Amino acid sequence: MKTLALIVLSAVSFKVFGQCPEQEFVGPSHKFIHLLRLAADTTHNSQIELDFFCAFPNTINELAEVFGADKQTGMLPYNGVHDQLKIIFFFYNLSTINKSAFYKKYVDVCSDGKWYNRDDVDGFGLLLKLLADPTNVAAELETRTDSEILNVFRLLLSCSNEKGLNKKYTEINEVLATSSPALMALLYKAFNEIRTSEPWEK
Q1: Do residues 123 and 110 make contact, with C-beta atoms less than 8 angstroms apart?
Q2: Which residues of the chain are modeled with pLDDT < 70?
Q3: What is the rounded CA–CA span in Å between residue 110 and residue 62?
Q4: What is the pTM of this model?
């Protein structure tokens, strides 16, 4: 009986989380409007969350394009910051999406990341997810190449001063020590690379 239940549950999970509804967008601005409309939902409706999750970009470059970043400078338009954050917050708070699929897309978006000399960068909330749910986030990171993992850590360690860098490193290192010691060496590599780079020598 348990075996049958597991088979049925697996089949349902695959249908819900393994297949995204077909969606066609005229361009990045059309997708932005679609995501913003869905992000207005406050009911945690599973179908709305699935539609949003499937439409949400898979890479940081695609996300920048949807947000209207300047193709030459990469700068995002200031007049749309509130709506951009609304979309990011909705993605961060998705509650009905399978965790494995959710963290896969989260890491996908951050795997081309880089370090920023700013305090307001946390991988679109991935840093908080890692600190709150290290086992599941680390499980996804462990499936990635060293290069991708380093990119994620560089993004998560973004800050404007060495004190902030040390704080972030310590927080991440502590959760990895219990959830995924294998990732600690790559975290230190990213940390040491940033710590000894030009911004900290001035």
Answers
A1: yes
A2: 1-18, 69-79, 198-202
A3: 11
A4: 0.84
